[in-house]
Specification:
This protein is of the alpha/beta class. It has one domain (1-246): Pectate Lyase C-like, CATH 2.160.20.80. It contains 2 helices and 7 strands, in the order αβββββαββ.
Length: 246
């Protein structure tokens, strides 16, 4: 009788210890799950915060650079001999589809191509050609723009259509604000450019240096598509770019 009573007590003790171990296992599992979720949440928040910081810095650069960009327009430069350097009016609103526009030397500086129709055209010039040229709202579909190592610096393509265009030259400090760059391709430099609201669906940016593309700024996120080609290591999401919905 005594043996039976002791046996039941031992079984009860083993059962009690088993329940305690199960509870510990459940508590530890829950703690690990909570810790994992906390780590993942922190990573997500940190990534979102980093993107917001980059966007804020980009907007700051946008305002700073665009304010400086307006100064030459408000105060035209004056040559050392006394005459004023201004934008010429030779090409604005003109229709020159398929034209070949070529000049020797450093021509087309401050040239006005605003609203011109230059689809399938070829524009070629020398080392410092097209500096501060204006291509705002121009149609340059399937056009070829070629210049030397200092070409296109400070040029503007605001609202221009550069679909399938091929651009070869230096586009430092150029403005592509709200430009259509669908299937466009670059070879050359592309640094500190205004790409606010630009549309890069299907564009080939793979030959642009990663750090150079990261130096570009915007107030409104540029858009891209899955078929857009970026430089190796460039992450458009972390840089504040937006996937196009169309």
């Amino acid at each position: 009788m005594s043996f039976s009573h002791t046996h039941k007590w031992v079984n009860f003790g083993v059962s009690y210890e088993g329940v305690r171990m199960q509870r510990r296992f459940v508590i530890v599992s829950l703690l690990l799950l909570v810790l994992t979720c906390a780590v993942l949440l922190c990573r997500h928040v940190s990534k979102e915060y980093a993107v917001r910081l980059r966007q804020q810095a980009s907007r700051q650069r946008y305002h700073e650079h665009e304010q400086r960009r307006d100064r030459p327009k408000a105060t035209p430069e004056v040559h050392k001999d006394g005459y004023q350097l201004s934008v010429r009016e030779g090409f604005g609103d003109s229709k020159r589809r398929g034209a070949i526009i070529r000049r020797a030397g450093n021509s087309f500086q401050r040239e006005n191509f605003a609203s011109a129709v230059l689809d399938d055209a070829t524009l070629e010039a020398g080392t410092a050609s097209f500096q501060l040229a204006c291509f705002d709202k121009a149609s340059l579909r399937n056009a070829k723009l070629t210049g030397g190592i200092s070409s296109f610096q400070g040029s503007t393509f605001v609202g221009a259509d550069l679909s399938a265009a091929r651009l070869n030259g230096s586009f430092q400090m150029a403005s592509f604000e709200h430009a259509i760059l669908k299937r466009a391709s670059w070879s050359g430099s592309f640094q500190v450019c205004n790409i606010s609201g630009a549309y890069f669906a299907g564009a080939d940016l793979s030959e642009i240096d990663k750090s150079a593309l990261e130096s570009c700024y915007f107030a409104e996120a540029p858009t891209y598509r899955p078929d857009t080609k970026f430089p190796t290591g460039f992450d458009p999401i972390s840089q504040g770019w937006r996937m196009a919905t169309e």
